[in-house]
Amino acid sequence: MRQMKIEKKYSAKKIFARITLLIIPAIAIGAYLLWHLNEYYGVLESQWATESLFLATGLIAGCLFYSFRFRFITTTLPLLLLLFIIGKIVSNIYTGEFTAFYAITKFYIFSFLFFTGWLAGWGFARLRWFPVILSSLIMLLQIIVISNTSDITAKKLVLAFAPVLVFSFYIVYTAELVRNMNEDEPNFSWFIVKKLLGFVVAAGIILLLIFSFYKKDFLAIEQQYGGGKSETQTPNKESLTKENKDGTVSNKKQMGLSGGRSSTKRLVFIAKLDNYFPKTDLPNPLYFTYDYYTKFDTLTQTLEVDSLMPSNDLFQPDPSKIPLYFTQTDSSVLLKSKGYLDKKVVSTEVYKALLSPKEFLAPATAFFCQPIAVEKEYKQQFKSAYRAKMMVSDLNSAYFVYNPAGNKVLENFQTQRFNLLRQISNWNNEDSAFMSYYTFIPKGDDFDSIRALAKEITKNATTPIDKIIAVRNYFLSTDETGQPLFKYTDNPGVPGLPSASKLNYFLFQNRKGYCAYYAGATLFLLRALGIPTRVSTGFLTMDRSTKNKGWYWFYEDQAHAWTQVYFPGYGWLDFDTTIPSTEQQQAPAPDGTPPITVQTALFVTHGKVIDVDTLKKRVDMSVSQMIYHDKTFDLKKPVTLNMDVSLATITRDSGEVPLSELKVGNEITALSFSDQFKNISLKDSNSYQEIVEKIPTPAPIDEIKIIDSTKEQQQIAKEIKKQPASLTKIIWIAISILALFILLIFSLPWLIFQWFNYKARHTKAIRQKAYWSYNAAAYYCNQLGYSRDEMSPTQFAKEKIDAHFKTNFYSFMLVYLKSKYSKEPLTHSDENVVQNFYPTFYKTVKNKIPFRERFSKFLNYYRTINFFSKPKI
To answer: Are residues 657 and 802 located together in one domain of the fold?
Structure first.
């Protein structure tokens, strides 16, 4: 009898089923994973097909070998010894140092894959829980690979996880099906095919639901980590800006360290900056700031914005939501900037070419924004404009580190600044939370090496400013041959392994990079020295204009990142350590003529449209705010203004539009440059009622700006709903999907019983009721540990169930078998048995088994698979 069971267990039919249904799918998922790994790990040399062959050989050999009674340890140790001997032979065959290293590396890779396949084959043949373990390991491997990917899209996430999830569902289900297969089942092949088809349908529905449920999360991850790249950008390259759907350019909220930088030489904006060196007409350019990056994600090696950073002095209004010539100010940022020494107010005018209407950038620290009109002759080139005011330090300049050679004015200016800053020796009086935040550096070997380098670079420096200069000098230093130690390049490449630190690769090996590398490295070098530092992003300001002093043209490749250092009393000062790039200093074309003469709007109103006459070209608006000769009025009670718009330009953020686009209810700003508003005689210049009464009717209007408030509110709602993507969001989503899958697996037995239970209680037709009552009772007993095994249905009911629970299962089985196999009608007594059996049976069994025991046994989904894999009666 024992010999018969052994033959059954290791029969050719079962081994064939295991190879066909388990090993071949495992080979397929292994090949997919190897292909994916080859995309990221250069050491694998893109030989995924050959590697898959070795893995497949190990899987098949291990499964076949251990399908019989061979012991694991006594067979595995000789295999390892054999592989070791072959490795020694391979190393002796090749004599060249490089050739030998290459050959032995390939051998170890192939041996590892073969041995991994061998272990997996053993697991499939001998270990019942191996499919669950394998599924978890494969999911973990895929999470690690994806979490180290810099170019992430929703499509890539789905393609990465969908095959792994399908395989996990499949292998757990099918392994137990093969384990419990009954070779004597009539139409056995069709039975297996039917089960697998059912699985395919169920798995497809589950995957569809999962990816539909998490679609927003995948898209959020793509937006956050993929960078919102435009189709025109080079794949796998980082950009400090992103292109919006309307073709405009915006800032990104994170900055990764990739193998290359993508940028173009398109004009983004121009600016007039009223800042000059003291007592000269020499322009003193200032960097235009977008955002501050104070956090570093060690997993994705990405610098990120932290909206909760202490003393947030960033002023970020949306100019498109401010009516023309009205203003928005925030004086609180001046206090948060923590600077009060050697300060002055500087103004700038920004004209946007590709820059998004919503974006605001200006030198630090901005506190004032006023949208202004663009003159008609420039409207094709510049879509919108604004005026900004900033409180800037006399010590700040784009020339903070690098001076044009031979310019004595700039050299003296820099020397004076350094002498002033040498008076600062510590930050002892600063808030401890502020210092802790801006000097934070992660723990770990990678950052310990940066700490050691920082101490070595600055070992001879005494004051903070001298330490900063020492860091600058390190990036400017030369090697033993006199060549520059560091170089600027937009294509620095990446380490061979995706998990390697890109900052360490830049600092200690490659020493080539663009601004993000220099800024990130400087951030941690200075923080390691206890110097409060942050990274600022925006645009590099280059003074290329000789005709129009104070005007600066900003191209897309001037998007830039640099560090800012905090000095007590002086606040945050720009400190740019990026090696100069000659490409960034040269414009793609000569800078054009800026709008030097700017008209002043004499009359500006803001309100809503109440009537539009396209024939007469008249518009009536309800005015809530008004500017007259630079004096602003907030009307307590709205007044109606009739306007002549026959000569007016109608615009949106997207550009000029026809008058027909103007609708009742639109929020608009109307302005006029007409001389008719110049000489209006007023008794009381503070009375808006008198102004409204005396202005011409209809009022001549030169420009109307439509503010789409509904669209803006929707955008605000979207921004509020957007959560900053977690640094480990990919991992958590994968874990939650896996947890959902596990929950589904363990709850499946209970869900199936609920279906049987419902059908048994609510089916009206007596024969059908008998069928469902039998299935519900048999399934319930099976889940509680009372399976039929080799017993007949009546023997199982009488000897195992009725004897233990004192039920009438046997009497019911006689009626059920009669209803199923006999053509005789059921008697009234038989019908009563069917009607009354199941509720009483269920209650009796339930009351005799404690809840905790029932709960634990219903978690065993192997019993469920076993129930459906047995022959049916």
So the answer is: no
